[in-house]
Amino acid sequence: MKKGLLHLAVTVAAIGVFIFLWNQLGCGRGGDALCDQCERPARLPDPATTGTIRGKVLFQGRLPRPPADPRNTSDCAAHRKGEDDLSLARDNPLQVRDGRLRNTVVFVKSGPIENFVYEIPSQPLVIDNRDCFYAPRVATAQAHQLVLLNNADSISHNVRSLGQGRAAFNVTLANRGANLRWRFHEPQPILRLKCDIHPWMVGWLGIFDHPFHAVTGEDGTFEFKSLPPGRYEIAAWHEGEGLRRQELVQTATIEVSGTLELPDFVFEAR
């Protein structure tokens, strides 16, 4: 009887270790080993006919006071650096400079790009757990592109993806250098990343089936080149902290070899 219980305990422990390593190596649901689409041939529009859309994202209204430093746990307290803490400043959900809004995801929501197949980027998107924040806080990738979720801290973090279907996972990154290699094989609405160990750690990740997506920097600008001519919906999304709306959409038509400057996307304060 005792031998049977011991055998059962060893088996359960072995299965647990296997599942942990499977997830750590990114071999599970949607992981690095499952990229049968990475070598698919591209089918691109005639470059002589393609055009460009560009524009910028603005903020209008009164800015709320920046949030206080939430890193009050003993393991994260060492990362607090006072008023000059760049990590804290970069994690502010609402970053505005000269009226221009940072960390806005801008993307082609619909249009004639649906008639083509685009190459999958060979370089991974890297998201660090750094100074007890996600860096970057907001990012985008293409479906099937490798996403590297890395622990740059000397303490444990976990990464929980609140995506749909196979895009949902929860993996512990136990120490500095631990990482998860993951490929999202289907486009996702902009999904939330969180750390259950440090609940203030929140990140946002958009997965698209084309390369026409961007996250605005300090200047609030974006530009999409090599778009086939036709009618488009261009969307701008922000996580919505202090904003009236999270998503704004414009329609635009690109002529053959044309360049189009969109009207500004303007997010208003509540």
Task: Give a quick precis of the structure.
With 270 residues, the chain is mainly beta. It has two domains: 1-30 and 122-186, Immunoglobulin-like (Sandwich); 40-64 and 87-118 and 210-270, Immunoglobulins (Immunoglobulin-like, Sandwich). The protein contains two helices and 19 strands.
What does this structure look like?
- This protein is mostly beta strands and 270 residues long.
- Helices cover 11% and strands 39% of the residues.
- The chain is built from two helices and 19 strands.
- It has helices at 2-24, 86-91; strands at 51-60, 96-97, 100-101, 105-110, 125-130, 133-135, 138-142, 146-151, 157-162, 168-173, 179-183, 188-194, 202-208, 213-215, 221-227, 230-237, 247-254, 259-261, 265-268.
- The protein is globular and about 60 Å long.
